[in-house]
Amino acid sequence: MKTIIMLTVFILLAGSRVLFAGETIAVDTGTTAWMLTSTTLVLLMVPGLALFYGGLVRTKNVIGTMMHSFAAMSIIGVIWAICGYSMCFGDSHGWCGWNWDFFFLKGIDASVNAETRIPDLVFAMFQGKFAIITPALIAGAFAERVKFRGYCVFIAIWSLVVYNPLAHWVWGGGFLTGTAIDFAGGTVIHISAGVAGLVLALYLGARRGYPKIAMHPNNLVMTLTGAGLLWVGWFGFNAGSSVASGIQTAQALTVTQVAAATGALTWILIEALLHKKATSLGFVSGMLAGLVVITPAAGDVQVAGAIALGIIASIVCYGAVIAKGKLKYDDTLDVFGIHGMAGIIGAIGLTFFLRPMDGRPEFLTQLWYQTQGVLISIVYAGVVTFVLAVIIEKTIGLKLNETDEMSGMDHSLHSEHGYGLLNLN
Fold this sequence. Notes:
mainly alpha; 14 helices; Ammonium transporter fold
């Protein structure tokens, strides 16, 4: 009898432990709600980018340019669910990560992260929006002169062999994780996209007629609207990267706002001093420089650092845009001049403004970590992008032929017109 009683108690206790174990990771509904909001905000940045880029090109290319952003939402959205998340956040295997439980996201269908206490699917979808917007950013560098089919193949492969490995190295447990600080994507997103854009712009060559023919934006109202959506969405981009709803979230949100405002103000002051007038295009360029520069630093610098980084990024990016004109390379929408340069400044410059914290490496050690991350991102993204560009151009084609380019992407590639107008300038 005694044995039966002890066995019964043992079974009950074992069962209670299983039940208890199943309930220990309760979902933090507050944090989950914020991460769902952040995921939505980051996705909002993609149509925001479409509007931003679409307004800056000529009328005959507005639909084709906006389609680059929307195509990324579908192509990368599918790739991410199938294997992208596993490559970034699966167990480390050197070049990339992998975990069969993450294949098709099947192993995280009902799981909750023990540390953040949010459903793993929420984190996967949040990170997936980063994967979507990165190749969409690249498209601005070769806008108005690329085949849609070639672009789609390029971003699909680029996400697999460039973005996913970089994200794994920096965030997913790879060799840069825990050393190089990249809070929300300075190296993984902006430097890689900026460098890739520069490589493609140089490889494909300038638009026909550039720089002799003036190529004015078709709709700056659209660009301003897109810029506003990017600014709003960036709060999810940066503050959401805390994967929490607490002090660091507030810190990241605050410095994001401050850096964006500082960058915009600095750029229009430069224009006012040099040209006696401020432009809307200058405002959004400075705003974007401020947002990009604070991205890697958002969780680790204070307001004074955000202001300093915003000023420096705006000045340097302004100079880079001017230099592009003098060097006569055609980075159509200044992807490298703003995203690439501001990303580099933010990733390295944050070392000088880090919030005091126990356990941080010495200044020179951290500076080396940051420089290492930047150099690896530049070299890896640059080399692989060039190889991909050559292969795709020599096979299915990447650059538009002269007839299609002069007709415009909207008509030649999509049989549509953005405004229904006959005069397509």
